[in-house]
Amino acid sequence: MAEPSVAEQRWLQAARDFARRALPAGEGPGGPEPPPPLDAVLRCLRSAGGGDLPLGYSFISISDLQCQQCMPCCSHLTWSTNEFKEWTHQGQDVLPMQSTLPRAYLILVGYLTDGRQEDKVKLVDGCLYVKDNTGIIPCELLYFELEWLESLFLFPSWSYIPQTDQSAAGYVEILVDPVPVYLPKEVPDSIPVTYPASAEPLLTSRIPCKKRSKLTVAGELAKLGPLLCIHRKTFFFLFLKCFTSAVWVPVLVQQPNQLAWHHILQLGHRYTITGLSMSSLKKSGHRMFVTGVSSCLLPYCAEQVREQPLDSVWQGESTQSSSPEAAEQLSDSLQLGVEEERPGSTKESKIISYVGTVTKILNVQAGLFLLDNEVCLCLAYQQLLNSARGLRPGACVELIDVHLLQKPLVSFPFVVLGACLSSTVVLKSFSRLSTPYQPPASSGNLYLQLLFRYNLGMPLYLWMVSLLEMFEDRFSCFFGRCRLLLRSTHRNPGAAEKFLVPLLQAVVPDTEEARDIYNEILAKIHQCPLQKYLTLNPPCQAPSLSTVCHVAEQKSWEGFSPSQLLSPLEAQHMGTQELNRRLAWSYCTLSAGSFQPRLILLGVLRVSSRSSSLQLQDRSSTLPCVISHKDGSPFANTALIGSLLQVENYQLVVERFLQTDFPSWEQLANLDHVREKKTSVYVQFYFEDVQVLHAAEGQIQKGLRSGNGSSLRKKDDSSVTSELETPEAKMLKLEDRKTDTHRNESYEKSQSSTGRTSNCVSHLFLVTQKEGLMLRNYQLPRKEDREGQELQCSFQATVLWLGRPQLWSHPREIENLPELEETSCDGEESMIRQEALLLFMGRSLRWFPFVHLDGLYRFIVPHCSDLEVFDKLCFPPVPTKFLSRSSCPLCLPVQDTWHLQHGTWISCLTERQLAARLVLTGMDQRIFSIPEVLSNSFTGSLVSFSGEIVERTLCASPKNEKPSVTVSLQKQKGSLLASDHSVKLSVSVAPGSPVVVDIYIAATYLQHLWGLLPGAKILFQNLERKISRFHNIYCTYIASSCVRIISLPASHLPIPSSPAGEASSPSLVFLSNLQPHLQYLPRARILCHLSCVLTLSLQWVCSLCSSIFKEGRCTRQSPPCPSHIGVRQASARVLVEDGTGEALVLCRNQHVAAMLGLSLLDWEALQNCVQSRGRVSIQHGEATGTGCVEEPEDFIACYLRSLCRSPLICRPILLDFSLDRKPSRILQPAPLQLRNFRCGEVEFVSQVGPQPSLLCLNVEEVEQDALSYLNSERIRQTSSHRGVGATA
């Protein structure tokens, strides 16, 4: 023999080293010679390589393969390069976009075994493994022989597939039959057997048998059940069929050393099984053959068997009545409800066989795989005890006796093949692609837990899987790994289980029957949960927040037309500016029932320091939210930040913003005039309708562990200054900076001296006043230019410190309110009360939604033990040399790292804290009523009151109002309305209340105000009360103002654009009852007589400049107006009386036609005639000096004059009105005057009051029957009022 080369010697030395470490030593003589296993391996290698050793390959042990190989690979010892390329090319034909397995030049040698060692005990689970001295790894084979167990093999072709998460080792796919290192064992010569046709009667009748007698049965494998593991007992069923008939017998295999048979058995092949005994299941009565410890599985060979008569074996005792342990445990553990059969459109699934290629893993945890890009394979109803090894994209599988379900779920796009316990899944070929291995969870799999607990049919299971997939995708990034999120225990269910269980309980029929798995496996007539199904239309959905916002925006624009926002009778008289302004802002509300199917909101509660609003957040997006309590108390629970919430009863509000240039109302149908459409979506709900699926950990504890302050930091807040670098954030720039710098340095030293400890300092305070968000002249130095300053969005609150700062060793030790309890013991004098002004800027703006009046809060400073930390950061609001009031509260800038904790409300203090409650009495803010605010005797300038919004109107900012600092600045980022707009809120005490006050809010404030919708009850705080030049009282929102939602609008609100007071019918009154204190009556009704028309004016004005529009063009000359569109307008002043008094009524536009009694056609013809003249006016003799100029020669004027003087005009009418508050002739207390009245020839003298000015809201003709009824009602009401007065 030639001397080996240097390369071969090195290779052999590496082989010896591998054998000493990985292969067991042989029983040969000692010395340097290699152990016998290596000699046998080298002999196999030379035989496979044609006599040469594969020097290009290297040996690899099991442990090195698991630790060093992180990517999928394959090794083909005997293949050439061309053979490998052809093999990979065939794999790419299945999935062209996937890469093929890379080739590794490795030699794998090991023993095939059917168990693994755990605590020095061999654990057999039905899987096969490859092992050596260094480790053990699972393996999958397409073909297996029983003689291979515990034998040493060389694996010429194999693939290693690691796990995707790298948390555990992967497995090995044996691509071709392994080469035995030693010769196999020999098979026995002759075996006596019994065939199924002879053995089957033993299972149907009680034939006596000899004690401990065993039976050998030979037959063709007709059906192979899946491996099942119940209470750590693994078993499976097989069915042997007679060669010449359809008679078959079931065999239960449950011995650990026989579970490997499951890898050997192939359908259609003939086998012989020895050592069988007969048993029966107690609960179901099914009989079967059961293998014993000595049972053997042998391939059937006609030359090696001989048939044995039953008479010589089976006689004597009766059959065994005790069932196998595994069968009893199977019955006890799977008490599953049977899916209720629903009458009607239930479908019967078809049982088919199918061969396909896995093209995608839809959800391995749920057992869903996609075959051939069009068929879904569901293996959830079987147990994947081999952890779905081999089922990678590119693998070919054969499905036998699976259920075909077409369209089980409306939203599911694939046909489904479901494998039940009678189905067989055979892996035909491994994947040649470098696709990952995703093992299903071995325990805590919520998909399978809920499937078995509620015995779900395929439609419900697919729907449940879609919900769980959505849940995992949206929230796993917030709560760690998926397993943590889906983790479930009986006493402490996880978030996903809390979400799903009520939904499943609502749709799963309540039945006491259990899923009979024995019938499913053993019965002659097949029964299983997949047999019948009903196409499911999902009852609800929980899409991502980005999808929710997108769908809500779509619904808000579906069928939307600008004409929907305006009444045609009003729109036709509006100019261009007013028309487009009225269209600029609208809204619509959606509920869960507005979506099909019903939409459930899920989100993590967050708070943004950018928008200073609460938000629901998931992986996709955020959704601003408004949370209220049904009892009217504000939401202030800071502990819920970071919690996962579920809301099913909510109002999804879509605010619509339009930029339009409609010339007139006639073009409203032409959407080309819509230049821009924007929306703002938010949700509002009550906290009582919230279910907390996952409570957040303590935010302080998170900050202490991470060492970076509060855990609420978000990605979108990265640009916000994280900390107040200096305590120089002041309203004025007149401070002595040296003093503040020294104060800051001492604070920094105290912080650095404490180190990163878990100590924290807290201070309790009471909020006595809160101001709204706005740009204020508090300034933070910018990082890039410390000299440059810019205004900061901020808010401030006046608080009262209670007690002294407290030091805690850990935030978890913070008690409820120890400061107040100490006060109860020591008396009122012990409570230290010091007022302070808290300044919230930067990231501390996140506390804006939680800070409310009369609330007791606590600031917690983490990593701090300095009790003077609050005093060191305080500074006077103005420099000391300008400070005139010694009692002026000090300002305290709230640091970004401080945590706010809500304690309670003043009204909720316990009995132990009553003394503190007495001390704090009177500190709360005075809340007035709307009648008090509107009273002429009211003297305050800042008012707080609550009321319900009855109307919301966008209007131009008042010209006499000086713009605030915020309004005068450029349009803020995020504001969708022009800064020259204001919103007018008409607020009443209660729905239908006659008392209404108007509140004006500048548009630049609105981006921080959510939920100002008609029907909502709002608490307005610190509004400025004003009196107009017409002596009307109204309120404005200023820098010190704030609002809070007390209750949300009802879901059955009228049309959002309906004016105030239209929701309820107006009350019938007398003119003599209109007193000065009723001047804020929004709407009332009188039955009156139209006496005469005093003035009448019809005109066409330019839609742009409001000049007279004549003959199709504007008459303005300097400068000329380019408009070619006119708007018709009409006004009239009439005199009415109801027997108790007289009144002047101002009518506009369409109400003029009603007063004149003109039909629609006559009114249109009259307007067209006026268009050529521009303007036509007439006046009655009593109305001289009103400014109306008549044109006596015009025939239109003559017609109108004769019409107004016609007796037909003077008639009874039903008039809806409001008091005209704009003219200077407002009803004021005045002495009664004497007037002469003539009735025929009789003249009367009576005292009458001044004529009130009314504004016409509606005119109705009164029929004779209605007139009689109303008169009788009016007389009855008058009599009742007089009777009450006499009694009093």
Q: Look at the structure and give the mean pLDDT.
A: 78
Specify the helix fraction band. Answer: 10-25%
What Rg, in angstroms, do the CA atoms define? Answer: 44 Å
Q: Which percent band covers the strand fraction?
A: 25-35%
Q: Could you say which structural class the secondary elements and strand pairing correspond to?
A: alpha+beta
Q: Work out the helix count.
A: 26
Strand count, sense and barrel status of the largest sheet are: 9 strands, mixed
- Measured between the Cα atoms of the first and last residue, the distance is 138 Å
Specify the overall morphology: elongated
Number of strands: 61
Name the descriptors.
1288 residues; single chain; alpha+beta; disordered C terminus; DNA binding; 31% strand; 26 helices
Describe this structure in words.
By secondary structure, this protein is of the alpha+beta class. The chain is 20% helix and 31% strand. The strands form 13 sheets. Strands 1, 2, 3, 6, 7, 8, 9, 10 and 11 form a 9-stranded mixed sheet that branches. The radius of gyration is 44 Å and the shape is elongated. It starts with 5 loop residues before the first helix and ends with a helix.
